[in-house]
Automatic annotation (TrEMBL):
InterPro entries: H-NOX_domain_sf, Heme_NO-bd, NO_sig/Golgi_transp_ligand-bd. This is Heme NO-binding domain-containing protein. GO terms for molecular function: heme binding. The lineage of its organism: Bacteria, Pseudomonadati, Bacteroidota, Flavobacteriia, Flavobacteriales. Residues 2-161 form the Heme NO-binding domain. It comes from Neotamlana laminarinivorans. PANTHER family: GUANYLATE CYCLASE SOLUBLE SUBUNIT BETA-2 (PTHR45655), SOLUBLE GUANYLATE CYCLASE GCY-32-RELATED (PTHR45655:SF13). It comes from the Bacteria.
Amino acid sequence: MKGIVFTEFLDLVEEKFGLEMVDKIITSSNLKSEGIYTSVGTYEFSEMLQLLTKLSENTNIAIDNLLQVYAEHFFSVIKRSYSGILQMYSDPIEMLASIENHIHVEVRKIYPDAELPTFQVLEKTPTKLVLIYKSSRAMHAFGLGLMNKTFEHFNTASTIEFEKLNDAATEVKFIVNKI
């Protein structure tokens, strides 16, 4: 997992819960990196899972809820650092439908060894999008948060439902409706 995911996560933890919480979740985890991350480095997903688990334990906030909040924070990073990608679209459905064939292509130009989830478009109309999310990591809630922020970015109301297609939540069907 790319280091920017870790550095931004720890920035969010500091912003929302304080520097003491950052220190607490790092020191109570068994991290190969010892909690030292660079935005361009690559780290094990297990470290992110440990940090999320420790944060959840210390805040009594479910991991999926933490991932959604983190996604909202990460969208602001995308907006600030990669605004060109957002400017290529005028509609949230079009943008979300292009994740696999355009956005992830651009991400791989910046981070060639990034392990990204896949998104298969099952249905697409001007007001509806049905996607299948597949990943070796159960981070669908992060995807949900990014989708919510995408609609907010375009000042468009939506409903987003999801169905876990397996117990591990590594395959999830998203049903996105523009209102």
